[in-house]
Amino acid sequence: MATYYTEDHEWISVEGDTGRVGITAYAAGQLGDVVFVETPEAGTKVKKGDDMAVVESVKAASDVYAPVSGEVVEANAALADAPETVNESPEGEGWFCVIKLSDSGELDGLMDEAAYTAFCKGL
């Protein structure tokens, strides 16, 4: 399994032709206490860079963008009742959805963990 990161602070962990998507610990820290999450429904088609979910905190509401194109095959329904999971485990149990990739070549434009860490240090 390989994990990739976007400049908008999403992560995707890819195994085979699917990827589990969420926001990074950095993003969760910037948002503060998450109070609401809207995940995409299974069957939703997304394009890389399109908004696909919403996360609201006590500070702000933010769109979550699709790191790749494909079809949502699973959403994390547990976030509806426990949005704080995004703060507690942003890169674990706080995932948003699973996407079946339509073009694995899109992963080439994303950062690995080392590049993402360096990117965040520059912010």
Question: Roughly what percent helix?
Answer: 10-25%
Sequence of secondary-structure elements: EEEHEEEEEHHEH
* C-alpha termini separation: 28 Å
Question: Strand portion, in percent?
Answer: 35-45%
Largest sheet: 6 strands, antiparallel
Radius of gyration of CA atoms, rounded to a whole number: 13 Å
How many E-type strands? 9
Q: Unreliable runs, pLDDT <50, ≥5 residues?
A: none
Widest β-sheet, arrangement of strands: 1-2-3-9-8-5
- Please work out how many helical segments DSSP would assign: 4
Spatial shape: globular
Write the layout of secondary structure elements.
Blueprint: E1 2-5, E2 10-15, E3 18-23, H1 25-31, E4 34-38, E5 45-46, E6 51-57, E7 61-65, E8 70-75, H2 78-81, H3 85-88, E9 97-101, H4 113-121
Antiparallel strand pairs: 1-2, 2-3, 3-9, 4-6, 5-8, 6-7, 8-9
Brief summary:
The chain is of the alpha+beta class and 123 residues long. The chain is built from four helices and nine strands; from the N terminus they run E-E-E-H-E-E-E-E-E-H-H-E-H. The protein has helices spanning 25-31, 78-81, 85-88, 113-121; strands spanning 2-5, 10-15, 18-23, 34-38, 45-46, 51-57, 61-65, 70-75, 97-101.
Give a verbal description of the structure.
With 123 residues, this protein is α+β, with helices and mostly antiparallel strands. It has 4 helices and 9 strands. The chain has helices at 25-31, 78-81, 85-88, 113-121, and strands at 2-5, 10-15, 18-23, 34-38, 45-46, 51-57, 61-65, 70-75, 97-101. The protein has a 6-stranded antiparallel β-sheet. The protein has a 3-stranded antiparallel β-sheet with strand order 4-6-7. The N and C termini lie far apart (28 Å). The mean pLDDT is 97.
